[in-house]
Amino acid sequence: MVIKVLNHAQAFRIRLVLRVDKCLCKDAYQKFGFKNFNRKEYVGINLSKLQELVDAGRIADKVDVETLVQLHIVKKNDLVKILGGGELKAKLKISVHKFTAGAKAAIEAVGGEAVTL
Fold this sequence. Notes:
Elements: H1 8-29, E1 42-46, H2 47-56, E2 62-64, H3 65-70, E3 79-83, E4 93-96, E5 98-99, H4 101-109, E6 113-116
Parallel strand pairs: 1-3, 2-4, 3-5, 4-6
């Protein structure tokens, strides 16, 4: 029987490989956190996007979920949230599922109406 003596570097490599292999096996089965199955996912649309649509003549004075679906911005079953990014100059009546506080204030500041479904 032959016994091979390992130097320090070889022994360290073997221990490192075994340690990494052990960690990879452990991580493959671990589950972190909690998945909330009741979470609602919203599609966010900035005010700047709405202003672009007004400038292009694709919307006139009323925006609702059906209008956004026809313009292929959202899908039929998506929940829509208007975000306050950008600037809105047109007076619009917007009817969607949710608004941020900044977006609602900006819409009402130009004389528009923000209706929550």
